[in-house]
């Protein structure tokens, strides 16, 4: 993507990301349904979109990257409470294929949140 002619790879990535949008959204954090309304420079929760220098899309390509015909893209869908490792795993799995014996979506959706008790010792004078 960052080499000459990389824009065609970015476009191919957008097609792949669009096909698995619903799966990605299930891993991209809690509360996205309320946050991603399609208004106020947010994308719609239900629909995958991408564009150049468009803050209202699911994925944004920087204008300089589009002008240069190579570069990177910004996935604007993850919530701040999402697990960055699961997000990265989903993107890599979508763009590069699943590793043998691994399924990031299944692993991410099967794991339940655990409440861990943290004991903090307090020193008393």
From TrEMBL:
Domain of life, source organism: Eukaryota
Protein name: Glutamate--ammonia ligase
EC category: ligase
The entry's keywords: Ligase
EC numbers on record: 6.3.1.2
